[in-house]
Amino acid sequence: MWGNVRKRKTSRIDTLIGQHSEVLGDIKFSGGLHIDGTIRGSVYAESDGKSMLSLSEQGTIEGEVNVPYVVINGVVIGDVHGGEHVELSSKARVTGNVYYNLIEMAIGAEVNGKLVHTPNPEENSISLNQIDPLEQE
User: Among 37, 60, 99, 111, which is disulfide-ready with 75 (CB 3.0 to 4.6 Å)?
Assistant: First the structure.
């Protein structure tokens, strides 16, 4: 809050998985990943805190998603962990739990599971070194 540098999501796409492509196995990436095809495995982002996944209307993920910024407009069968921001567009279909810090959900999006708010620990923690209620002189 006071002087903290806010992490920005990546807006460019570094990796594209085409509509007629199918990946069997887990994917670990950094930067931007756009999926038009099918992933049969989990999708993880490097721990840089600014990677982004976008899943198009034609895209499908059968596995866990763990990415700071997530935009879903396709099908996910598995849990979604969006550390910073999750956006569920009108054609999004999630069968699994969605763990989010901030969420946007359009009319028509479906979640067959739980929505679980997981606050960002950096925003909620107060260091005792910053505030001393019993100042001693």
Answer: 60
What's the domain count of the chain? 1
Report, as an integer, the average pLDDT of 95-108: 96
Identify the pLDDT of residue 1. Answer: 42
Residue range of the domain that includes 74: 15-109
Instruction: Give the alpha-carbon dihedral of 16, 50, 65, 96, to 10 degrees.
Output: -120
Does the reported pTM lie above 0.70?
yes
Asked, for residue 132, whether it belongs to a domain, the answer is no
Which runs of E-coded beta strand occur in 3-136?
Answer: 15-17, 22-24, 27-29, 32-35, 38-40, 43-45, 52-55, 60-62, 65-72, 75-77, 80-88, 93-95, 98-105, 110-112, 115-117
